[in-house]
Amino acid sequence: MALNLGTVALPGYRKSACSGVTGVASTPTTPTTPTTPVVAPSTPATPTTQGMNRCGKDYNNAASKCGTKCPRGQDSECPSGEFCYAAIVDTLCGTTPTPPVVPPTTPTTPTTPTGQAPCDDGSPSACKSQCQVKCGYKVAVNQCWGSPRYIECKCTDGSSYTFTGCACENSQCAGKAPATPVIAPTTAAPKAVPTPSTAAPKAVPTPSTSTTLDSAKLKTISDSIAALRKQAAELNAIANQLEATLLATSAELLLAVSE
Predict the structure, then answer these.
(1) How far apart are the C-alpha atoms of 25 and 47, rounded to whole Å?
(2) Is the peptide bond before 201 cis (omega within 30 degrees of 0)?
(3) How far is the C-alpha of 172 from the C-alpha of 161, rounded, in Å?
(4) Cβ neighbours of residue 166 under 8 Å, at least 6 residues apart?
(5) Domain boundaries in the chain?
(6) Other Cβ atoms closer than 10 A to 195
């Protein structure tokens, strides 16, 4: 009699059909429990810490897409629009690396010289705070700046105040004469001796086209004058004739009267 053990599934492997086992009918064999094979765990490859030079638009882009290698570290080895980035670990390819966490820097508070109150740090002892309180928050001028410091506190009613540790030490403070600048004497440059200039000869004016045009007008005027002179001569001749006639007539009258 044949005994079929069927299909036995082993963990970690795909299923496979076992062949039937032939035994004696009168003495059947007891099926043995298959032993589970011990599979040694695989040791993951240790990522290299040195990394490769790869191309990308930025470091994250080069690491996430496992960009083109640029072994010489030159941007010219990369495609257009990409740059060469160093230390791209192969295990980072396909993932977005976490940027390093930079601890926040604590801003340094400027120190105030001993004996001086701060200008305006929000404390009641600050010069500007004291000015506001003294003026009842009706402040016209409230200044504190520079080194040496210029400090002025003036209320809207015209009153002015000073406070301990808030002395005005700048040269622009009221009552302080500004420092007189030292002016180095200047050496007058020697006067330049004028060199006689050679006057250029006057250019002879060339007749313009207007002269040619005026000659025609002059001829017209000359002809008119000649005509006037001719008329004057004719009038003069007529006047002479009239004068001769008048004299002859006068002589005849005198003779007639004398007779």
Answers:
(1) 61
(2) no
(3) 17
(4) 116, 117, 127, 130, 144, 151, 153
(5) 52-92, 117-178
(6) 6
DSSP 47-85: PPSS-EEEEESSHHHHHHTT--B-TT--GGGSPTT-EEE
Q: What is the identity of the amino acid at 82?
A: E
Q: Which contacts of 93-96 are long-range, i.e. CB under 8 A and separated by 24 or more positions? A: 93/63, 93/64, 93/65, 93/66, 94/64, 94/65, 94/66, 95/63, 95/64, 96/60, 96/63, 96/64
Determine the Cα angle at 57 with ends 51 and 59, to 5°: 35
Q: What are the pLDDT digits (tens) for 102-140?
A: 666 665 555 667 788 999 988 999 999 999 999 999 999
Which parts of 125-234 are beta strand (E)? Answer: 139-145, 150-155
pLDDT in tens, 13-71: 333 333 343 343 444 555 555 555 554 444 433 444 457 899 999 988 988 888 899 99
Backbone angles phi, psi at 115, to 5 degrees: 90, -10
> Using CA atoms, how far apart are residues 8 and 12, in angstroms rounded to an integer?
13
Q: What is the mean pLDDT of the chain?
A: 74
- Joined together, the tokens standing for residue 33 give 């429990």
* Eight-state DSSP code of residue 119: S
CA gyration radius, the chain? 63
> What is the C-alpha separation between 179 and 148, in angstroms, rounded?
13
Whether the model clears a pTM of 0.85, i.e. scores above it, the answer is: no
Strand partners for 147: none
Classified as helix, coil or strand, 208 is coil
Q: Which amino acid is at 63?
A: A
For residue 168, what are its two tokens? 């005005």
